[in-house]
Amino acid sequence: MGILTYIIPFLIVLGVLIFIHEFGHFAVAKFFGVRVEVFSLGFGPRLFGFRYGDTDYRISGIPLGGYVKMKGENLDEKLDYTGDEFLAKPKWQRFLVLFAGPWMNIVLAIIIPMVLAMYFYQEARYYSEPAVVGSITLGSAAEKSGIQVGDKIIKLDSIENPTWRQVELKTTNNADIELKLTLERNGQQIQTSITPSTTMIERQKIGSTGLWPQLKEEPVYVEKVNDGTPAKQAGLIDKDKIVKLNGEAVKNFYWFRGSIQNLEGKETLLSVERNGQIIELKMVPRRHEDGQVIIGFTPNQEFITPPAMVSGQKTISEAFKMSLNKNYEVLVLTKEVLKQIFTGQRKAGDALAGPIQIAAISGKMYQTGGVESLLNLMALLSLNLGVFNLFPIPVLDGGHIFILILEGLLGLGGLKLSLGIKEKMMQAGFVMLVLLMGFVIFNDVSKFFTKPAAPKTTVSQPAQPAQAQPPPAQPAQVTPAPPAASENTNK
After folding, report:
1. Where do the domains of the chain lie, and which CATH numbers do they carry?
2. Quick check: 144 and 153 in contact, CB under 8 A?
3. What is the CA radius of gyration of the chain?
4. Does position 105 have pLDDT exceeding 90, yes or no?
């Protein structure tokens, strides 16, 4: 299958998101009697399609978005006021037509997690439990912050009594950014801070603390050692049992893999049990091309106990509430990322994903998690696409809505927004969108052709006791492609 395993999931995800968005515009426009001339998935030259009634339904050559072309929507188009022209309709009807596209994406983002929860709900049990520390990986941000096993996190930044899910979301989104932390240890409150270190997953910058809940303790068994790796060169062989890492008893594979991420370029000591004897092996973990730090072996999966899961079927009301909470979490995280970009705490290139990167993520998620993972990705992108299209950037739906509102406000004072000003606003919006799409595509390409750099490490103080091919400039209903929005031992 090769590249098709990435392209097909990507086209399915993007195709559904664009279709849903454009169908929203189309359905509301038809409801108000607006003549829709073109319904296109993709931009550029028409590849194929069919005509039904007044509308040409087509697939176009550039699969980076879509659009609905309505009669009388262009600013320089002469209106004959036959009753089926977009700009001849009342402002409130035009508003609803424009808003319908992003709204459909937001609705889809709510429906997908809701349906999955109703029929396929499954989640690690510890996600909903209080954040009581079960283990801490070697060399991690948590270890440097003085956190200890048994500590309970009672406040993380502004989150009171966080669950493990909240801890994971917060720290994942704040790589290299200091977070205030309050711990409970032996009945005493301890004020400290933690700065999640950077780890790279699928070339994405992710915050990592090294904190783990209480999981089953078990050694790591080697299934296969890969050729040309530090493990192979050090003499690790198949069936070895890894019992210690740098003198520390191995807690489990999750702990081991996380610890290796913090040991790049450092001489590392593995204590392995082989034929009843303990053998010491020295090696230097190295960074793989995908950004993960490895020593180079595949673990025996039979001896990796997955976290306990909670599964079942939620009622409609429970599923709806879970979906709303999940989407709210995404919005909060997105707000944090945008704030980090504008304050210089995060590079825009680390936060934005274009079509190439989305294709890679789509393929990877389908391969590792099947249809369910792909649907979760679709929900995430749908929310991002809906919100992004509401930004007040001319050319996007939000830009047209902004112009409508501005016209209405000026009209209250007897003023009018001239055609020339509206055209200049549209041209400025078009340039902004071209630059944004150019940036995310360049960013995608550079990520895939540049070797990942080693993330910087940050030392925290010990804990102390308490004291989108751009669309045409005129059509209002353009949907550009959404921008962003393990020891990898098997390498």
Report:
1. 4-116+381-456+470-480 (no CATH), 130-212 (2.30.42.10), 220-299 (2.30.42.10)
2. no
3. 26
4. yes
Query: Residue 261 region, left (φ>0) first, then alpha (ψ -120 to 50), else beta?
Result: alpha
Give me the mean pLDDT over the 341-361 stretch: 74
CA-nearest of 297, 299, 266 to 283 is 266
| Angle, helices 397-412/91-120, rounded to nearest 10 degrees | 140
Whether 141 and 196 have beta carbons less than 8 Å apart is answered as: yes
Report which residue type is found at 208.
Answer: S
CB of 110 closer than 8 Å to CB of 331? no
| Mean pLDDT of the region 36-51 | 92
- Please report which confidence band the pLDDT of residue 436 belongs to, taking 50, 70 and 90 as the band edges: confident
The strand pairing partners of 179, in sequence order, are 194
Could you give the 3-state DSSP secondary structure of residue 189?
Answer: strand
Q: What is the pLDDT of residue 468?
A: 30
Structure confidence at residue 202 (pLDDT): 59
The residue with tokens 């993007």 is: 14
Higher pLDDT, residue 34 or 436: 34
Contacts of 8 (CB under 8 A, 6+ apart): none
- Inter-axis angle of helices 91-120 and 4-31, to 10 degrees? 140
Pairing label, strands 188-194, 179-185: antiparallel
Question: From residue 120, how far is each of 109, 369, 412 by CA, in Å?
Answer: 16, 13, 52
With CA atoms as reference, report the closest residue to 317 among 114, 111, 110. Answer: 114
Pairing of strands 464-465, 248-249: unpaired
Do 42 and 57 contact (CB within 8 A), yes or no? no
- 480 pLDDT band, cuts 50/70/90, is very low
SS3 330: helix
Identify the pLDDT of residue 472. 32
Q: What is the pLDDT of residues 153-211, one digit of tens each?
A: 999 998 999 999 999 989 988 888 899 999 999 999 999 999 998 876 656 678 889 99
> What's the average model confidence in pLDDT over 53-80?
86
What is d(CA 376, CA 458) in angstroms, rounded to the nearest whole number? Answer: 33
CA distances from 109 to 276, 328, 379 (A): 54, 11, 4
Q: For residue 230, is pLDDT > 50?
A: yes
Structure tokens given for 407: 């016209």
Q: For the chain, give the longest Cα–Cα distance.
A: 91
Residue whose structure tokens are 């993972």:
373
Count of beta carbons in the 10 Å neighbourhood of residue 188? 9
Catalytic residues: 22
Q: Which residue has the tokens 């091919």?
A: 469
Neighbours of 409 (CB within 10 A): 11
